[in-house]
């Protein structure tokens, strides 16, 4: 798996270098570290109303959580039936929306009480989910992002391109300063995407963010982007740390 990740990351960097107008290249500087639950297979991560939320996956272990940032403690937790594999999540206009991977359904909850409201049909694989404050924006592991209304009906489909090449495996998403940030699954890369054109305008190399000394057999890939008051937070699947970071242009 490690060789696959390194190869995929190198391939993305090669695409960027060969683009007619290559995207900006960034590294990271760690500002602060926070505890993160090693058992959390992170699928979605975001702040809402100043509070931190996370959705987790894996069959029989899928959940939605409200977290304390400083301690990593789970303050509230919704657990899902073992038939569901939880994926990306977001809150919009007083409701929490959460995707499932291959169950072809999405869930809607009241944002404040986390009371269940409804289950909606969902015709694609569920991967990442975010919002621009108006639409839901989802990924499905392809090179496309889907702008949807609150009933998960597609309003617009956006193809993400790095130069002349589509970028697949778009995963967890976050809306930051008018751009879409997307993890690329199996890599340590985050893309900064123009939401109008689909053009990749920036590539963030997150390699080495979690040191080898903190990794164990079940430690998985980078996946989790959140923003609060301009501060960027990153984590990964079964990572014991969450990191506040800032970008450093190369």
Keywords:
250 residues, mainly beta, Neuraminidase, eight-stranded mixed β-sheet, four-stranded antiparallel β-sheet, 1 helix, 7% helix, 52% strand
Q: What is the CATH homologous superfamily assignment?
A: TolB, C-terminal domain
Q: Helical percent range? A: under 10%
Order of neighbouring strands in the sheet with most strands = 16-17-18-19-1-22-21-20
Radius of gyration: 17 Å
Class per helix and strand makeup: mainly beta
Helix and strand element order: HEEEEEEEEEEEEEEEEEEEEEE
- Count of distinct structural domains: 1
What is the molecular shape? globular
User: Can you tell me the CATH architecture?
Assistant: 6 Propeller
Low-confidence stretches are none
Q: What proportion strand?
A: over 45%
Number of strands: 22
Q: Profile the largest sheet.
A: 8 strands, mixed
- Provide mean pLDDT, rounded: 92
Distance between the termini: 27 Å
Write down the CATH class. Mainly Beta
> What is the CATH topology?
Neuraminidase
Helix tally?
1
């Amino acid at each position: 798996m490690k060789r696959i990740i390194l190869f995929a990351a190198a391939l993305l960097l090669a695409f960027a270098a060969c683009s007619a107008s290559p995207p900006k290249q960034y590294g990271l500087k760690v500002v602060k570290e926070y505890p993160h639950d090693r058992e959390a297979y992170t699928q979605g991560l975001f702040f809402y109303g100043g509070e931190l939320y996370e959705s987790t996956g894996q069959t029989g272990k899928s959940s939605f959580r409200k977290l304390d940032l400083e301690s990593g403690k789970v303050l509230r937790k919704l657990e899902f039936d073992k038939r569901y594999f939880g994926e990306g999540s977001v809150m919009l206009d007083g409701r929490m929306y959460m995707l499932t991977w291959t169950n072809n359904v999405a869930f809607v909850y009241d944002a404040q009480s986390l009371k269940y409201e409804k289950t909606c049909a969902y015709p694609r694989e569920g991967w990442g989910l975010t919002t621009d404050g108006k639409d839901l924006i989802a990924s499905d592991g392809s090179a496309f992002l889907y702008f949807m209304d609150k009933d998960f009906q597609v309003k617009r489909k956006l193809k993400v391109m790095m130069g002349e090449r589509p970028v697949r495996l778009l995963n967890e998403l976050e809306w930051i300063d008018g751009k879409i940030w997307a993890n690329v699954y199996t890599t340590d890369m985050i893309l900064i995407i123009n939401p109008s054109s689909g053009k990749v305008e920036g590539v963030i190399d997150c390699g080495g963010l979690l040191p080898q000394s903190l990794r164990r057999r079940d430690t998985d890939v980078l996946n989790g982007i959140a923003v609060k008051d301009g501060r960027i937070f990153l984590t990964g699947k079964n990572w014991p740390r969450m990191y506040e970071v800032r970008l450093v242009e190369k």
